[in-house]
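Run log, item B.
One chain of 377 residues. Sequence copied directly from the ordering sheet:
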Amino acid sequence: MSEATDAVIAGVRAMLPDLARDAAAVEINGAVDSAVVERLTGIGLFRMLRPAAYGGLEADPVSFFRAVRLLSRSCPSTGFVASILGAHEWHLALFDDRAQAEVWGADPRARLASSYTPDGQLTPTDGGFRLTGRWRTSTGIHHASWAVLGALLLDEKGEPVDFVGTLVPATDFRIEERWDPTGLRAVGADGVVVENAFVPSYRTFGSRERILQEDPAWAGNLAPLFRMPYSVIHTHAVAVPVIGAAEGAYEALLADRPEAAASPSVARAATDLHVAWRQLTGHLERLLQRAERNEPPDTESAVRARRDQSLAAERAVRAIGAFLDAAGPEAWERRHPLQRAWRDAQVAATNAANSVDQTLSIFGRWAYGLDVGDRWW
């Protein structure tokens, strides 16, 4: 890690006692406090995966996810919001430089949310496209001045011809308050509505851009960080907070019942968390090393990384269940950190990127020599 990255991690650690103290209130209020997000912005968390040309640290992704893991131990909702907003800095680096300049050049503290479900319709017009759509959820949208929204590009017959990410400023969308789950209540994943907004061509990311990101002739202009597979960075962003939440639950259990550490089921669950983290970081390190050698990501590495990422989230959810079983009935009170971690992890695990069925199916197809598509799963 660099000195700048070390400073971010130190800043995160300094926040942890306050986050743990306020976690119950944050859940009741249903929102991560804007002052917390501003503090994370100030210590540089959201610049970790940003290009150096725009003031970013270009940190290794393991360091970024280590910060997310720490935050999630104290407050899973805060960790989840931080992870999502931070990962979008990485995605924006893959857009046309004009889009990057429009966001970071105008406001170095700008933050991006998203909804990648293809719930928008994109129609060509002079100089770009018109976007209309309604997206059900967008984590951290209340803290964002821009959003990347998924849309289907339609041809002149109204038929979909591509899946496109569109970069839209907050002035072009409105938020529908609808988020009211049993867990991750504070991530503020409310809906987003766009009505006939103009999107310049350079603010879109479709199949052409996805192919270019893996083309050494073009991607050679990118730092190694930004040549890592899109599917790995974004999916890890929704898995690591679950691991952090489970580790926080383990700490809460041992604070109440130190003798639980000797329970075989508890020890097995804690070991699962350790193994899950080592697997995730191992994949990230190998993929970054491959990019540093200017080698495009290979399908085997991407498939294995996705498999182990989703299994890591599943292991974390299962581990929290074991910790709850060992904690006794008082841990099921809503105010108890173990109960909160369990609910938060259950909701986080429903994210499509954490679907074990999907990733095991992809892995099985690859292992059997069948086609697995373009790796943008």
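Observations after the first pass:
- The first helix runs from residue 3 to 29.
- The chain has two domains: 3-91+219-367, 112-204.
Flagged for discussion on Thursday.
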